[in-house]
Amino acid sequence: MLLSAATGRLMVLAIIASFAPPGQAAWLLASDQTATRPGGSVAVSVANLDDDAPVPDTLPARIISGKRKWAITLQAQDSAPPTARRREFSAVLPADITGLVTLELASPASSRLLLQVAEAADRHGPLPRMLGRPAPPAADALLAAPSPALAAHEPMYFLLGFREATTARFQISFKYRMFDDQGPVVEWLPVLSGLRFGYTQTSLWDLQSNSKPFRDTSFRPSLFYQWGQDRPTRDSPAADGSMQAGYEHESNGRDSGNSRSMDTLFLRPSWRWQLSDGQTLALTPKLWAYLDKKDNPDIRQYRGYADLGIRLGRDDGWLWSANARRGAAGFGSLQLDASYPLRRPFLADTGGFLHFQFFSGYGETLLDYNLRRTSQFRIGFSIVR
After folding, report:
1. Residue 39 zone, left/alpha/beta (φ > 0; ψ -120 to 50; rest)
2. Beta-bridge partner residues of 70
3. Which of 13, 36, 208, 308 has its CA 20 to 30 A from that of 322?
4. The pLDDT of residue 34
């Protein structure tokens, strides 16, 4: 991944600190936060990998800056069972600390987290007001700025299906932040901090026919603006949201009668809620208007002008999702996905997941936008879900 210079140095230091704990630390700390403000909060995942001892509701911890130490308490934010060995915590930092500090458990021995504690300029823009929430404090904008320039965009997976014929479906997807959040361009024109380039490629591969041809591939480059974050904040059960708006081109890269392409302007809001049982519920509709569809002039009859995505699940457990689309003529499609981690991840964005997928309806590929093929169930592996 590509990081800004400041964030890159911070991440390197965090990795060094995490793998150089005092003694033989078997309690591990992880966080997707690299910064907070004086008196602000920090969300931390705590895991006991040494024995069968469960992780309690509260844990004594300390903040270290040079020779100074501050005692704090990590408070559990989930409702995990008594035997849980990995839990989510949050803590409030002292108001009189700034700079680069270390967070560790006071007991037992643990790995360490490195945090930047500083005030920051507010770059949230109008999104909080659009979602009906007040603008966050200035330093929270630092937490909201994504650290990686290159990040996951849509799910990435490789799946196999065996109904009627052996086929594979796989997808790769990423997005790239065009301008460094700490760079001179954004400092001169802060509105550019939300500009993204996205790319998603979805392929259907016929593994049974001679020469094993690709049935079709959809290429979807996009240029869009993003307000807010893809992931909810873990220290609040309140609704969190984001929005993407921009231009997307989709084509299958073929010629003559098999050529399919279209250009759209889209709007994709997303709302997420942290539920009391530790699960996250997300509602993500996507709306679009056609700019060019001459290769498939009746595609709106099958794809319509919107779809609806729903996701429910946990970072460390099952994640269920559904995506439904209905065309102007009543034709539509439904895709259902379920995934479960094959190893214990600290973050939900990437990892190794057992993945199940079911598709039914019209247009599994752009070439087949007006065809309904046999419903398919597939199983495989995903690295982003």
Report:
1. left
2. 63
3. 208
4. 77
Q: Judge whether 363 and 303 are in contact, CB under 8 Å.
A: yes
Tokens of 190: 């802060």
Q: What is the pLDDT of residue 54?
A: 83
CATH architecture assigned to 5-117: Sandwich (2.60)
**Where are the chain's structural domains?**
5-117, 127-384
Give the pTM. 0.65
Cα–Cα distance for residue pair 289/240, rounded to 1 Å:
26
Fold for the domain defined by 127-384: Outer membrane phospholipase (ompla); Chain C (2.40.230)
CA-to-CA dists, residue 165 to 171, 206, 320, angstroms: 20, 8, 26
Q: β-strands 99-105, 113-117: how paired? A: antiparallel
| Cα–Cα distance, 67 to 342 (Å, whole number) | 41
Segments of the chain with pLDDT less than 50: 1-24, 121-146, 233-237, 346-348
Q: Write the burial class of residue 272 (CB in 10 Å: 0-12 exposed, 13-18 middle, 19+ buried).
A: buried
Q: What is the token pair recorded at 11?
A: 């991440």
- C-alpha 53/C-alpha 105 separation (Å) is 16
